[in-house]
Design a protein that fits this description.
By secondary structure, the protein is of the alpha+beta class. Helices cover 63% and strands 10% of the residues. It has eleven helices and five strands. It has a five-stranded mixed sheet with strand order 1-2-3-5-4, covered by helices on one side. Helix 7 crosses helix 10. It is rod-shaped. The two termini are 30 Å apart.
């Protein structure tokens, strides 16, 4: 569900006038020139309206013009000191009609760049001093009408400034959300890549370790019995050649996955399922292992569950060839939908000195199996039993 849009606490680039304390950009120069022109125009109109209906002493006219000119020049500092400038020009505009334009620009700038807690005192000061300004500059003597117009004018400037501020907040919020979404997308892509690399590493271990262990087993048999009958040597050599060919095919497939483009256009290599498990058992038996296979399943296994079961049995057989060469291995699968699938791979441990095939291992096979089982919502245990056997046990959930 999309969360409700919230305006975050804005960064200094939004709450503080743009590029405060830094060199003005071209856009800043254009905006500042327009603000200066607006201050001059509004101040000139206010000065003409105030002095058109009343005659003031010459010194007061000079003061009014001088104060308005200085106020217009002070507008150039609106980015650095918006609150102080608005407060000062509001007071000056009470006794100087020409300063009304700069005061309006300063009030608008304050409404855009500062929160309401700083804007409120200046607005209150402008409303409180409005009657004094109307007494000094009565205009056409319609005091009530002039007061209403003044209040509406102040309210309009403040409302316009707050609208600009709210729009900037919204734009900043959308930009920040887009930036955060892009960052999160990059993190998800990187995480997906890491997961894919881990998956490929598990596939390489599961497949190649099984093939290479078969190669080592037959090569060891040939080395142990150099005087074997020619037909047995030929059969062992054929198994070695077939296993080497399969290992190369598996390696080529994995490297192909690594070389494929990341857009996923290339089809994935078909993954083994429960239907391929008998072939795995027969392959191990052909390599000389004594494997007893038994299964009691009340229904057909789903593909994902069957694939995980295949990998667990494959790793169990590989470990048995590595660490208990010549020992009988028992493989049993049992389960029903709703109760889960239980997998047991059991083999006798060697008596006396450990006789293991000279096959280097990564030490991550059981770790990978445990991760597979955990990701599937199951659990895996392994170790020596009281009867002296090594048991690899796994339970996987089987949806009803």
């Amino acid at each position: 569900m999309e969360p409700e849009l919230e305006y975050p606490r804005l960064l200094p680039s939004v709450l503080v006038p743009e590029h405060a304390g830094t060199r003005r950009t071209t856009r800043d120069w254009i905006v500042d020139v327009w603000c200066l022109i607006a201050a001059l125009v509004i101040g000139a109109i206010a000065f003409a309206a105030a002095h058109d209906t009343h005659d003031y002493p010459d010194w007061f006219v000079i003061w009014d013009l001088a104060a308005g000119s200085v106020a217009c020049l002070a507008v150039w500092t609106r980015r650095r000191h918006p609150f102080g400038l608005a407060l000062t020009l509001t007071l000056v505009s009470v006794v100087s009609s020409a300063a009304a334009g700069p005061a309006t620009v300063a009030l608008f700038t304050l409404a855009v760049h500062r929160p309401f807690r700083q804007l409120a005192p200046v607005v209150a000061l402008a409303l409180v001093t409005l009657p004094v300004n109307l007494l000094i500059f009565p205009g056409d003597e319609q005091w009530v009408l002039n007061a209403i117009v003044g209040i509406l004018f102040i309210g309009g400037v403040v409302a316009w400034g707050m609208f600009v501020r709210a729009r900037r907040q919204l734009v900043f919020s959308l930009r920040e959300r887009a930036r955060r979404a892009e960052t999160e997308q990059q993190l998800r892509v990187e995480q997906a890549r890491q997961q894919e690399r881990a998956r490929i590493a598990r596939e390489m271990h599961d497949v190649l370790a099984h093939r290479i262990s078969l190669l080592s087993l037959h090569a060891g048999a040939l080395e142990f019995r150099p005087d074997a009958p020619p037909d047995e040597v030929a059969r062992a050599a054929g198994v070695i050649r077939s296993s080497a060919h399969q290992a190369l095919e598996d390696l080529r497939a994995v490297i192909g996955v690594l070389r494929d483009r990341p857009d996923g256009d290339a089809p994935e290599r078909p993954q083994p399922t429960f239907a391929d498990l008998p072939g795995l058992i027969e392959e191990s038996r052909a390599a000389g292992m004594a494997v007893a296979y038994d299964w009691e399943l009340s229904a057909e296994l789903p593909d994902a569950l069957g694939r995980t079961a295949y990998r667990i049995v494959q790793e169990g057989l590989t470990n048995a060839r590595k660490h208990a060469r010549g020992a009988a291995v028992g493989v049993r699968l049992a389960g029903t939908p709703g109760d889960g699938l239980t997998i047991v791979v059991r083999n006798r441990l060697p008596v006396g000195a450990v006789v293991a095939a000279d096959i280097p291992g990564t030490g991550t096979g059981i770790v990978g199996l445990a991760e597979r089982a955990s990701l599937a919502g199951g659990r895996l245990e392994h170790g020596r039993t009281e009867a002296g056997d090594h048991r690899l046990w796994a339970w996987l959930p089987w949806p009803a």
